């Protein structure tokens, strides 16, 4: 399996090369040359694997189609090391909960930092450690977080041999719990950098540093954001696990061939739902992928109108679902690459020249966009603060289930896209404790807090405040690399 850049860079690389590299040299994102195809027989085989052997072995089945430069026995061992009941609190790893007939929540937040990012980041940490040891090398990870990526990365990488983490985050834009999870870590290989700006400024810094090839090579810079293909690939697995659980539940038997499902995914950076796009391209019977946004509705606007319009930092709203306070969806480039028939030159123009000069591009008159909803199965919707408060209240009152603000956005939009006879799976993104203030506003009570996080906000903090300046971040990295 070889990988290519969405912007046309000539090199074709293997998995472990792009695992450590992140962005392609031309600023593009990596995708496989082709998506492996999964037929009905393979789906039923994987259903049996998940049922009989568990999530880790299902992950091996999916990942092995994309990774051929790690021996199969080693890859299976890495999956089994990652996806354990001890780490994720349940043998199912991603159990499905039915709210009402045909509507499900897929629990993705049982990991160490209580957010879906753990599902991929725990594997990524083990993959990094494995490959760096095999090469005898070190890696300096530069990341950007709007809330959950940072803590998931730091908890996955803390203590890992050969790995340092430099994590940027928008100053004051995360919840107190999210900040405490990251900034209270005292591990020598973890560095937190609070940027005076919004998440998009952090993301721009990561891309700017990654595009400085001399600096990147000298300081061995890698990424853990979902621009890293390995992270997105790991997220593909739980779409298959959700499908197997929902179709078994909806039919009440093992005869599920041809049954389709829908997924609704709260999305800001398009990584989580892009993994669903990959699963669908592989042959998973997904009828619709529904993108749920908050007030920062760049993606909803695109799927409604064909116009992708990036907002300036001043126009990026600060909301009660802060992990989606994003107006530049990095992974969106991967989907547009497929949407435009893998025309790398056009993608380079759209995401390079047009976005940098105009801050937008318009595909509304393009026949490929006009057929996108039919061919790729995307739909979208938007949720506001008032919507998420109402959804949190309704879900707790009717089902006794407490959900976080981002999951509430997903559930609200999902109800607008229900179809009789087609199970709808909403991807849960975090546990409510991460956004306690809004939960208390909605329900008049604080959400439960795992014992290991008691008093976390009062712990000493280790964080460096910096301007939104790539040069300053590069200087900081250089001064902290032995």
**Spatial order of the strands forming the largest sheet:** 3-4-14-9-10-13
Tell me the structural class.
alpha/beta
**Shape annotation:** globular
Helical run tally: 21
What features would you describe in this structure?
The structure is a single chain. The protein is 45% helix and 15% strand. With 482 residues, it is an alpha/beta fold. The strands form four sheets. Strands 3-4-14-9-10-13 form a six-stranded mixed β-sheet. The two termini are 35 Å apart. 53% of the residues are buried.
Task: Reconstruct the topology from this structure.
Layout lengths: L2 E3 L9 H7 L8 E3 L7 H14 L1 H9 L8 H11 L2 H4 L7 E5 L2 E4 L10 H19 L3 E6 L3 H10 L5 E8 L5 H8 L6 E7 L2 H13 L1 H6 L2 E2 L6 H23 L9 E6 L4 H12 L3 E8 L4 H8 L1 E3 L22 H8 L4 H15 L1 E3 L4 H4 L1 H5 L1 E5 L2 H15 L5 H10 L9 E4 L8 H8 L20 E4 L2 H10 L3
Parallel strand pairs: 4-14, 5-6, 5-8, 6-7, 7-15, 9-10, 9-14, 10-13
Antiparallel strand pairs: 1-2, 3-4, 11-12
Question: Which key features would you list for this structure?
Answer:
482 residues, alpha/beta, six-stranded mixed beta sheet, five-stranded parallel beta sheet, 21 helices, 15 strands
């Amino acid at each position: 399996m070889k990988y290519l850049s969405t912007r046309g860079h000539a090199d074709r690389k293997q998995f472990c090369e792009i695992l450590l590299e992140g962005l392609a040299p031309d600023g593009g994102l990596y995708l496989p040359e082709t998506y492996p195809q999964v037929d009905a027989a393979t789906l039923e085989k994987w259903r049996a694997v998940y049922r009989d052997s568990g999530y880790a072995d299902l992950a091996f089945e999916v990942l092995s189609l994309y990774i051929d430069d790690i021996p199969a026995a080693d890859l299976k061992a890495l999956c089994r090391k990652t996806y354990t009941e001890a780490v994720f609190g349940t043998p199912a790893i991603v159990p499905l909960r039915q709210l009402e007939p045909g509507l499900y929540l897929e629990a993705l937040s049982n990991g160490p930092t209580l957010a879906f990012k753990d599902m991929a980041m725990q594997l990524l940490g083990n993959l990094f450690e494995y490959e760096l040891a095999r090469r005898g090398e070190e890696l300096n990870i530069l990341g950007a977080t709007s809330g959950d990526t940072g803590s998931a990365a730091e908890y996955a990488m803390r203590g890992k041999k050969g790995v340092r983490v430099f994590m940027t985050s928008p100053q004051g834009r995360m919840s107190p719990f999210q900040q405490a999870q990251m900034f209270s870590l005292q591990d020598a290989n973890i560095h937190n950098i609070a940027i005076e700006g919004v998440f998009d400024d952090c993301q721009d810094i990561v891309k700017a540093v990654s595009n400085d090839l001399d600096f990147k090579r000298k300081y061995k810079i890698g990424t853990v954001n979902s621009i890293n293909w390995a992270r997105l690939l790991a997220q593909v697995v739980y779409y298959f696990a959700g499908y197997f659980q929902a179709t078994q539940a909806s039919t009440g038997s093992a005869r599920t061939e041809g049954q389709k499902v829908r997924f609704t995914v709260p999305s800001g950076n398009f990584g989580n739902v892009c993994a669903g796009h990959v699963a669908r391209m592989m042959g998973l019977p997904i009828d619709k992928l529904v993108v749920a946004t908050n007030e920062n509705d760049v993606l909803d606007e695109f799927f409604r109108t064909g116009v992708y319009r990036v907002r300036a930092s001043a126009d990026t709203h600060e909301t009660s679902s802060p992990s989606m306070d994003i107006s530049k969806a990095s992974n969106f480039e991967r989907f547009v690459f497929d949407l435009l028939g893998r025309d790398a030159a056009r993608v380079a123009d759209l995401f390079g020249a047009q976005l940098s000069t105009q801050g937008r591009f318009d595909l509304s008159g393009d026949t490929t966009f006009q057929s996108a909803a039919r061919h790729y199965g995307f739909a979208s919707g938007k949720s506001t603060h008032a919507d998420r408060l109402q959804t949190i209240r309704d879900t707790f009152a009717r089902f006794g289930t407490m959900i976080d603000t981002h999951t509430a956005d997903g559930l609200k939009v999902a109800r607008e896209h229900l179809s009789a006879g087609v199970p709808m799976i909403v991807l849960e993104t975090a546990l409510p404790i991460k956004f306690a203030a809004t939960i208390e506003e909605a329900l008049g009570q604080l959400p439960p807090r795992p014992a290991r996080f008691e008093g976390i906000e009062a712990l000493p903090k280790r964080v460096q405040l910096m301007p939104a300046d790539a040069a300053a971040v590069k200087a900081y990295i250089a001064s902290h690399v032995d």
